[in-house]
C-alpha cells in the first residue's frame, strides 16, 4: 500500500486523495486476500498434511517424544488446533475408550514448553518482550491460550529448538509415568488438564 501511495503521490486531483486512498487500500487488500487464498492456502494445506503424516508415522512407530519435532513448529504456524483436533483427539478418544485415559490429549495441550519460553523471556529477555512475558505466562498457563507465546518464538526463531526440546522432554516424562487424561483439554490450561484427569 505504501509503494502504491508513493507511486500515485501528486497524481491525484485535490479533494480526491482520501477517496483514492480508501478505495486503493480496499482493492489492494482484496487482491492480497485472493492471492493468499489461491497461493498460500494450498501451501499451508500441503504443509499441514506433511506434518500430520510425520506425526502419524511417529505415533505408529511408538516414538511419541519425537512427535514434538512436528507438533511444536506446527503450533508456531497456528496449526495447533488442526493437529490437536484432527490427529490427536481421534487417537486419544480411541485409546481412552480402551484404557480410560490417553496421553494423546496431552501432547499438544501441554503448556510446559510455552511456559518455559515465557519464563526465560522474563529472566533473560530485553525491552518490551521482557515486560510482557509475565502477563503472557499467566494467560498461557492458567488461561490455556497457547497462541500468546507464538510471537515470542517468532521474534527469535531459534527458540523453536527450545520448544521442541521442551515438548520432547514433557512427552517423555508423561510416557514414563503413564500419564493421560480422559478427554481433550481445551483450552490447554493447567486447570483444564487437572479437570480431565481420572477421578
What distinguishing features does this structure have?
elongated, 199 residues, mainly alpha
Task: Give a quick summary of the entry.
By secondary structure, the chain is mainly alpha-helical. It is built from 10 helices and no strands.
Q: How would you describe this structure to a colleague?
A:
This protein is an all-alpha fold. Helices cover 72% and strands 0% of the residues. It has a domain of 134 residues. The chain is built from 10 helices and no strands. It starts with a helix and ends with a helix. The model has no long low-confidence stretch (mean pLDDT 90).
C-alpha Rg (nearest Å): 22 Å
Arithmetic mean of pLDDT:
90
Q: Which percent range describes the beta-strand content?
A: under 5%
**Annotation field: number of helices:** 10
Order of helices and strands: HHHHHHHHHH
List strands and helices in order, with pairings.
Blueprint: H1 2-8, H2 17-60, H3 68-76, H4 80-99, H5 104-107, H6 112-124, H7 127-143, H8 150-155, H9 159-176, H10 190-195
Helix pairs in contact: 3-9, 6-7, 6-9
Amino acid at each position: 500500500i505504501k509503494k502504491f501511495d508513493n507511486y500515485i503521490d501528486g497524481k491525484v486531483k485535490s479533494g480526491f486523495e482520501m477517496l483514492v486512498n480508501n478505495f486503493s487500500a480496499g482493492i489492494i487488500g482484496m487482491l492480497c486476500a485472493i492471492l493468499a487464498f489461491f497461493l498460500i492456502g494450498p501451501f499451508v494445506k500441503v504443509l499441514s498434511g506433511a506434518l500430520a503424516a510425520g506425526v502419524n508415522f511417529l505415533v505408529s512407530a511408538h516414538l511419541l517424544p519425537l512427535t514434538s519435532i512436528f507438533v511444536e513448529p506446527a503450533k508456531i504456524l497456528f496449526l495447533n488446533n488442526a493437529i490437536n483436533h484432527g490427529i490427536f483427539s481421534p487417537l486419544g478418544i480411541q485409546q481412552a475408550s480402551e484404557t480410560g485415559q490417553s496421553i494423546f490429549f496431552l501432547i499438544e495441550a501441554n503448556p510446559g514448553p510455552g511456559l518455559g519460553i515465557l519464563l526465560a523471556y522474563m529472566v533473560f529477555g530485553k525491552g518490551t518482550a521482557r515486560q510482557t512475558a509475565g502477563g503472557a505466562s499467566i494467560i498461557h498457563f492458567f488461561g490455556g491460550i497457547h497462541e500468546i507465546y507464538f510471537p515470542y518464538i517468532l521474534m527469535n526463531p531459534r527458540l523453536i529448538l527450545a520448544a521442541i526440546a521442551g515438548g520432547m522432554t514433557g512427552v517423555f516424562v508423561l510416557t514414563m509415568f503413564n500419564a493421560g487424561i480422559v478427554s481433550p483439554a481445551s483450552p490447554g490450561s493447567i486447570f483444564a488438564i487437572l479437570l480431565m484427569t481420572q477421578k
